[in-house]
Amino acid sequence: MDTLAKESGVARRTIYNQFISKEILFQAVIESIWFRLGSPDMPPEKEMTKDPAKDLYQIGLTIARHWAPPETQDFLRLIVREGDRFPHLAEDFYRMSKAPMLERMSAYFARLESEGIMAFGDKELAIRQFVGLIMEPLRWLRLIGIGEDPGDALYHKVVDEAVKTFIARYLVTGKTD
């Protein structure tokens, strides 16, 4: 609270007058961060093609870039660190940031499957695998505080390899160039 007051340029008492408790203040800070970060801005359905490699590449770059800023990494660490004290925090984070992205991907994957372009079996697992192929090499070490942002060149390389791996596993033979 002292740090917050100092950085805000107000007395600690002023902060307490605005927020009944530390938990309410914490929730206000979290909501402010959620508002700024939002969910990855997935390409609109109308921009999706029947070329899964092209579409997945765009989706993958969107995911990689959305989770790149240092503020996002700090926020993820906060969610993990404070989840035990504020159980709703992780649930709210998932509902407000990751779930909308996964829902959009689910609709797109369902379309690919219904058109016979890809065959997933377990679509939800496939979605998590795709996201994992991108997030693990780009975010894991940063999440635990090791390393810097790998930069756009590595984003492209990781996403390209993720798409190739994913296509090799799930593409219905003969459905793309």
From TrEMBL:
The name this protein goes by in its record: TetR family transcriptional regulator
InterPro entries registered for this protein in UniProt: Homeodomain-like_sf (IPR009057), HTH-type_TetR-like_transc_reg (IPR050109), HTH_TetR (IPR001647), Tet_transcr_reg_TetR-rel_C_sf (IPR036271), TetR_C_Proteobacteria (IPR039536)
Gene3D superfamilies: Homeodomain-like, Tetracycline Repressor, domain 2
Stretches of the chain forming a coiled coil according to its record: none
Lineage: Bacteria, Pseudomonadati, Pseudomonadota, Gammaproteobacteria, Enterobacterales
Domain of life assignment: Bacteria
Pfam families cross-referenced by the UniProt entry: TetR_C_7, TetR_N
KW DNA-binding (keyword) present: yes
Location of the HTH tetR-type domain: 1-37
Any one GO molecular function term: transcription cis-regulatory region binding
Species whose genome carries this gene: Enterobacillus tribolii
Keywords for this protein: DNA-binding
Transport among keywords: no
